[in-house]
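Example (one chain per record):
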Amino acid sequence: MPLRNLFILIACLLAGVAAWAARHRDLPGSRINEVLAIISRSALEPVATRQLFEAAIQGAVGQLDEHSAYIPRAEQNGFEALLDQQFGGVGLELVQDEATGELVVSSPVVSGPAWQAGIVAGDRIIAIDGQPTQGVPLARIVGLLRGPIGTPVTLRIAAARGTHDPTVREETDTATRDARLERALVTTETVLGDRRRPDGTWSFRIEDEPDVGLLRITSFGERTAGEIDAALASLATEPSLRGIVLDLRGNPGGLLSAAVAVCDRFVQSGVIVATRGRREGAEEPPLEPREATAGEMCAGVPMVVLIDGLTASAAEIVAACMQDHGRAAIVGSRTFGKGTVQSVVPLGGGDGLLKLTTAEYVRPRGAAIHRRPDDRDDATWGVVPDRGAEIAPPAASLERLRRWRRQRDAVAVPGRPASSATSMASRAMDEVLAVALDTLAHASVAPTQFGGEKETARDADDTVAAGE
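Predicted structure:
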């Protein structure tokens, strides 16, 4: 090659490299790195580089919608535990005394380390591994109690005297004891019944109306569908079931696949929910339906679904499906209106999670669930109770119900008399449930069919969270 041509070739290569370098400097990612570097070396108050990067990610996600979020590594285990319904811990349900800031046991998890150590409802946790708990935020308490399976933790406990209501201050023993526990795999429940039996298991029949089943779903996790199956099997052991109440009040959502599986237990066929993905160009994206499999559990048994303003996301999918298929009456107040899908994407190196809105839900009959920021009350969103079944109890009634439920949900303490409040009739304590029971009283009952008619396949979206 002539020397002149070689010089021309080298010059072209250098120009190309210079152009690439200039373009690279203008990339947004490069600009972010430049800004973070300047802050890191010049800001008056030094900030850790990792903290700056996490703030940058939070800022980017904050430009999207209220349900997309960056979950840093420190919070990742807690988030995944909510969906998996499992974590390493001691198995305690806790509340904080609003007046004193003391940590009170609402109930131990049956068969968990705390339950085996004799910790009962009403006990007060004074310290954890020597650290006082009074006034410490519950989120921090959870961090102290959870940990790797097999690791020890010591709780200092003061026992309550008499019948206990965790929301009311009672006299405690002056003496305290230390309980050394070993963390184990704790499995949380998402399907609750009407009350605890003495052995800690649930009775899914309403105490004062035993021919009606009550299934309270608190969220939708990996085990929810299996818990529903177990509850229905429990109901099947006794005859004369004239109705089932599915209580979704206060349920914030969870896994889309769990909501679909629950609907599939009660719907014979047809669309359970459809999702609509990202719009590309001017064309409306196609709907992707989730179909029910053949068969129906509890066929012929009338059902009522209870909802309120805190019923959201995956819980709204269930309520909408049951309403659109005419499978259940809907009682309560209008739901939250959260009808978008969040895909949970693990970041590289286990460095947190990205919860990103990637689709929206559409009801079986085609209506939207999601309430957009500019939607008014007369717009179509959420799930509205059936006509004549709208009821929104006042705050005082809801607080009374909360306290009554907390006592009934606690594991009974041997030798301690039950509170007289726990024996109050459901109709008297729960106004919404009373309307549901009246609705069932006028429903016609067909022969009950229990059993495993359904074989619901595992949903493709097992890693998709529909809510917090």
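Caption: Residues 3-25, 452-468 have pLDDT under 50 and may be disordered.
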